């Protein structure tokens, strides 16, 4: 709705949606067409999926390009270009210097499991899942704004909270903290950067194909 904040990942040719999966054909006359999809899809720039495409030579029939921008559509129907690099972040006039430093600190904590805040009660997830995930988040249904407000994050600016949710490519105006942290962790890992150079070419963590 116009009153909801959402994030669109864009290229030079406009915005794209990634919610609609490809559909198998109903006809069996052309069995080779079942894998074809005209729907643009976002995939991590690194990972097992891209490795599988390369090793199977399927990549020869595909076309990918890096994203150029993240754009946030705000409730007042204005558009805000989100920072795709550390340089762009510190040039944003909409955020104070303190907000920018708090955002950098939050990104650093995402990649460092020792810095993530653990809250009670513990998530109702299996023990094997906790072992598989070396970062433990007790923030199952907690809103992002509520999770970021206390120490050590101290992020209280609603505009900054919206920026964080949009960078995680979540369409909700009030997203939950858990999916935001998980998605940002994936994105930050895909660009292969160290915490000291966080938010460097963040859109480059995703491929449009």
Notable characteristics:
single chain, 209 residues, alpha+beta, 4-stranded antiparallel beta sheet, 7 helices, 30% helix, globular, disordered N terminus, FAD/NAD-bd_sf, GDP-dissociation inhibitor activity, GDP_dissociation_inhibitor
Structural summary, described in words:
The protein is of the alpha+beta class and 209 residues long. It has one domain. Helix content is 30%, strand content 12%. The protein contains seven helices and seven strands; from the N terminus they run βββαβββααααααβ. A four-stranded antiparallel beta sheet has the order 2-1-5-6. Strands 3-7-4 form a three-stranded antiparallel beta sheet, with helices on one face. The longest helix is centred in the middle third of the chain and has 15 residues, at 97-111. The protein is globular. Mean pLDDT is 70; it is low at 1-22, 120-138 and 192-199.
Please tally the helical runs, counting DSSP H or I stretches of 4 or more residues: 7
Structural class: alpha+beta
Spatial gap, N to C terminus: 27 Å
Let me know the average pLDDT.
Answer: 70
Q: How would the global form be characterised?
A: globular
Oligomer: single chain
Order of helices and strands: EEEHEEEHHHHHHE
Proportion of residues in β-strands: 5-15%
Radius of gyration from CA coordinates: 19 Å
- Low-confidence parts: 1-22, 120-138, 192-199
What spatial order of strands do you see in the largest sheet? 2-1-5-6
Number of domains: 1
How many β strands by DSSP? 7
Proportion in helices: 25-40%
What is the makeup of the main sheet? 4 strands, antiparallel
């Amino acid at each position: 709705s116009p009153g909801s904040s959402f994030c669109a990942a864009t290229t030079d040719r406009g915005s794209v949606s990634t919610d609609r999966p490809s559909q198998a054909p109903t006809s069996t006359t052309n069995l080779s067409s079942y894998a074809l999809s005209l729907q643009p899809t976002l995939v991590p720039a690194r990972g097992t999926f891209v490795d599988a495409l390369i090793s199977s030579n399927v990549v020869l029939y595909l076309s990918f390009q890096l994203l150029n921008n993240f754009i946030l559509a705000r409730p007042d129907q204005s558009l805000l270009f989100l920072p795709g690099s550390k340089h762009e972040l510190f040039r944003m006039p909409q955020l104070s210097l303190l907000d920018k430093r708090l955002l950098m600190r939050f990104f650093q904590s995402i990649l460092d499991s020792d810095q993530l805040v653990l809250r009670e009660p513990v998530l109702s997830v299996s023990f094997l899942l906790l072992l598989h995930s070396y970062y433990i988040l007790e923030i199952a249904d907690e809103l992002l704004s509520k999770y970021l407000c206390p120490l050590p994050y101290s992020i209280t600016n609603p505009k900054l909270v919206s920026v964080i949710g949009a960078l995680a490519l979540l369409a909700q105006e009030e997203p939950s903290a858990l999916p935001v942290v998980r998605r940002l962790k994936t994105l930050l890992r895909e660009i292969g950067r160290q915490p000291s150079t966080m938010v460097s070419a963040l859109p480059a963590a995703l491929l449009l194909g």
